[in-house]
Amino acid sequence: MQHIKNYFPNLTPKQESQFSALGELYTDWNTKINVISRKDIDNLYLHHILHSLGIAKTIDFTDGTTILDVGTGGGFPGIPLAILFPQCQFHLIDRIGKKIKVAQSIAEAIGLENVTFQHGSVEEDKTEYDFVVSRAVMPLPDLLKLIRKNIKKEQKNALPNGLLCLKGGELQQEIAPVKKTSIVFNLSDYFKEDYFDTKKVVYVQIVKR
Length: 209
Hints:
There is one protein chain. This protein has helices at residues 2-7, 13-32, 44-53, 78-84, 97-109, 140-147, 172-175, and strands at residues 66-70, 89-94, 115-119, 131-135, 162-168, 182-186, 199-205. The chain is of the alpha/beta class. A 7-stranded mixed beta sheet has the order 3-2-1-4-5-7-6, sandwiched between helices.
């Protein structure tokens, strides 16, 4: 939890208590359903919660922004971002029903009211959002094809509407087709822990014709 407070010192008491509760909730759920690698559950705050919040270092969502989290698994990056941006609306979707069930139960347990959940694939979701977020769910070009339909035309944020994707490693080839409309943010510029040395947020602007 200290990791979160170090980098986000202005949390309200409610946000602090919501973030604090995640440790026990995910640990408990992970004994029943493997949402996070068993080896990695001890690193929940650093590798999953703070990593998800890397997106918040690249954009400060305006109140009223709508965000779709594709392939959320147990709720990453959607749940940490929804705690941080209580005036924004998040919709979390995943093909694996039991993972969505975990995310939904955790959101209910911490009283998170700005999230909705869907068991299914992004192809089924025809709603439009300001942004799509994702955590290394599939190669960038494949994801962009699926979510183009989900991006609104009207803008309300400093960054134009589009995709914000948490990625790691070598990305030159993956980004090549969208080089002109993308920005790569290195999370090592924001977080000092070694874990973030190769972690990035890739932003791709999506222009609706």
